[in-house]
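Researcher: Quick one. two chains, 637 residues in total.
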Amino acid sequence: MRRFSWFNATSLTFGFAFLYLPMLILIIYSFNESRLVTVWAGFSTKWYGELFQNEQFLDAAWVTVKVAFWSSTIATVLGTMAAYIMVRAGRFRGRGLFSGMIYAPLVMPEVITGLSLLLFFIAIGLDRGVLTIVLAHTTFAMCYVSVVVTSRLVSFDQSLEEAALDLGCTPFDAFRSVTLPIIMPAVISGWLLAFTLSLDDLVIASFTSGPSSTTLPIKIFSAVRLGVTPEINALSTIMIGLVTLGVVSASLVSRATAKKARADEQAAG
Amino acid sequence: MNWRGRLLIAIPYAWLLVLFLVPFVIVLKISLSDIALAIPPYTPNLKDGFWPMLSVLDLENYAFIGAGAVVAGFAGLVLCIAMYRVIFPRIRRAMLPETADTIFDSAAAALTALAVAIVNVAIVVAVLAFLFPALNAFVEIPDFLYFAAYLSSLKIAVISTFLTLLIGYPIAYAMARAAQHWRPTLLMLVILPFWTSFLIRVYAWIGILSTEGYLNQLLLSIGVISEPLAILNTPIAVYVGVVYTYLPFMVLPIYATLDKMDDSLVEAAEDLGCTALSAFWLVTAPLSKPGVIAGCFLVFIPTLGEFVIPSLLGGSDTVMIGKVLWEEFFNNRDWPVASAVAVILLMILIIPIVLFQRNEQKQRELEG
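Model:
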């Protein structure tokens, strides 16, 4: 163990201050009484009240959650399938193209993905709305899911699966009762990642949404272009709170599971 | 393979073909057509039939956005990479056979390669213009806006990647040196902002950087400045935004390599007479190179096509290619030009993406 110098302490302090101060300021000023966002005029929760009266924001929030739920669910199924193929299917015709299509969306600028999907939807005559956003989000989110699941599939002992097959399982049964439970943590985190990505996406949703299907990021973006408003601060605070709650509880659960797994291993060994 | 296996492959394969590959082909096609006051606003389109469509395709959108210059630059860059990967190592081996591969060598190589690249671009442009007078219309830059947008996107991406490295490296280093039981918590603290909405994190800086924002209030009240600074709507605000939002992408891969590193190597260097600083330069820095490279690519690639940050934090004079594409599409409704911009942006991105993949693959082979 090497000493923890003052240099390291300073860079950690400044680094985390840089990462967290802007969000902290945002949260504090969401409780500001004044409409002038930069002048503190006393504590108040009135902007939260106004937010919950704003029909447009509530509608947009509902559309966003619906899109995120469906796209992340379909993306998890497709992404897990893709990961399973990449790791287990061996050689098949068109494998190179397949792996290219799996990795390309991860590094593709969102403006290009959005533009190409919009032009595609128009070319086939599909009206833009919730369905088109779901299709678009599913396509890029499944690639993230497949990367997360692949890393888990690579690391686990394949002989467990072979044992199940030797003992008379059909491939599907072996997948359901052996492989799936083992890769489940990765599948769940893939779903969460897909859900967050969809919740967060502005660019692709802007290209693929129709007039009747505005998502929350699109609403926030058009409000934010006119400057800082206390309602948006309140909305941001709620979103930051939800994400923090989710991430902290997920990491506590995974730490507890890891501890339990270690204890089980020790008990077995 | 039985039919079930085939079906398993067919479903995600078909999905990606239809919703990823086919849309691209459409972009490529529309980039070769003309703008029209119609719905959809370009001609010819598929309704006119396939052959009439094919016969009228032309390159004028590409000429309009100065693609010739970009293609020349692209060719120069390929040459430069060939220099760096093939020719430079040979020269080095011939001249300095016994030196160790340190980070200094790579920096020197990169600088040489950059100089070579600039010369290359000039040569390629000159040769093209000389050989094909007809190409002149294609090579000269009809609308400087687009070319300026490519260059300024490149500049902003390079500078902000460098700044992110400068800020991210010490954080990753300190995390890897922290006590073992602290590391999971520190790691979570770095990952948490990544899960928080990108838009909200960029938005948070508007309130800080604006003329009557918190930063100016603070600086005015402690008397450092007498007049508020104009930071919002300048390139500086864009740098701040990029560094802030992409910092986790830099910290995580560097932390991963530093965390795996064997501490005893540094101790050995110090026992053998290195100062702490030279031990860092000779041992830690070269060993963390893969993480640094991965982090730089993870920041550089998305920054190049960034839209949200320049449009919220940058001014009207901060042109980036992602923003240009957006405005061309939504404000000017010029779909063919927007498509051409997308194709060229993708072409520019292919080099860093391929280099990144190779770096990752090399790492996997070393570990595997």
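The domain at 57-216 of chain A is CATH 1.10.3720.10 (MetI-like fold).
Researcher: Thanks, that's what I needed.
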